[in-house]
Design brief:
138 residues, mainly alpha, 5 helices
Length: 138
């Protein structure tokens, strides 16, 4: 007996929700699970649910938009707790840290340059210049 695309989609989402719940509770799934939409589409268990190629089955503008939204929610939850999702967030945070460190270096350089100019024109003495730089570093 053939399984409808809707039934397959519902069953796959339910199965993937179980994986998301495991990940949320800090447990690792013991079996393979799809981490991308393409893997999800090709995922099948004979007799339980089938695979498909058509994007109209699980696309937000496809045949089952409410299920497509449920699928998106489950994938977001998996991304939030899976190793792959954590790695992506770590890389993004590392890029942010790098950008902030660069901005910090540029700002300190500008403060030093400004305080040097103020010292040259007699508006600032060397002790005040050191104090300004120390204040910035705090």
């Amino acid at each position: 007996m053939a399984i409808s695309k809707r039934q397959s989609l519902e069953l796959k989402i339910a199965e993937l929700s179980k994986v998301a719940d495991l990940l949320e509770h800090g447990k690792r799934p013991t079996h393979w699970y799809p981490e991308t939409i393409d893997e999800f589409r090709s995922w099948e268990r004979p007799g339980e649910f089938e695979s498909w190629i058509s994007k109209s089955v699980d696309a937000p503008s496809g045949n089952y938009p409410e299920l497509a939204q449920d699928l998106r929610t489950v994938f977001e939850k998996i991304d939030k707790y899976s190793i792959t999702g954590l790695r992506m967030r770590i890389r993004a945070q590392a890029r942010e840290i790098s950008a902030l460190a660069k901005q910090n270096t540029e700002m300190e350089s500008l403060i030093r340059e400004l305080s040097d100019k103020l010292e040259v024109v007699g508006r600032l003495d060397a002790n005040d210049r050191s104090n300004i730089i120390q204040l910035y570093r705090k």
